[in-house]
């Protein structure tokens, strides 16, 4: 199909699961898949003009050596730098209602050295649960002005948000007593983000990074 619709790109994520090192213990089906992959990538008569094959893996050293050679460029993508991490926080937060400023976003990028894009996604998802937890744990709510769930341009005066029991406008009730269309979820704050970050550790350690660097030194090529 890629050849029929060229120019085209074939992207294989987790390519190691398809093209791991061959062994005597693997099944005949697995061996045939790898052989066919080799033939299609660079076999006699293969016509791959204007067809780009990309593969991604976190364990490149487990690729079969013959298949590794078929990928002409082997490029190491390092962990995101500070500026990139800040942008990732923005992307993951999306349109979520927050109290975060540009300086807060920059601070988050600075304080997550060693975090991957997936790690940052976990931090944000955990932080997004904080308003839910706050609502579930609340014993008192108060009425405030807020936008309607159905139409953001319509403002109501009787929306309900969690509050302290000592707040002068506090009404004793649980979240189960709050009508769904009247609940105004608290915005995500920097305190929530710091709490989520403190409970999330980076998944890439120094040992992993060293293996990537060694593989790049042995087999890598500049992009």
TrEMBL record:
ATPase AAA-type core domain ranges (all copies): 2-79
Keywords: ATP-binding, Nucleotide-binding
PROSITE patterns noted in UniProt: AAA (PS00674)
Keyword Nucleotide-binding: yes
SUPFAM superfamilies: P-loop containing nucleoside triphosphate hydrolases
GO biological process: endosomal transport; vacuole organization
AAA ATPase AAA+ lid domain residues: 104-140
GO molecular function, one term: ATP hydrolysis activity
Residue ranges of every copy of the Spastin/Vps4 C-terminal domain listed in the record: 160-220
Superkingdom to which the source organism belongs: Eukaryota
PANTHER family, alphabetized: AAA DOMAIN-CONTAINING, VACUOLAR PROTEIN SORTING-ASSOCIATED PROTEIN 4A
Annotated family: Belongs to the AAA ATPase family.
Protein name: Uncharacterized protein
Species assigned in the record: Ciona savignyi
UniProt lineage: Eukaryota, Metazoa, Chordata, Tunicata, Ascidiacea
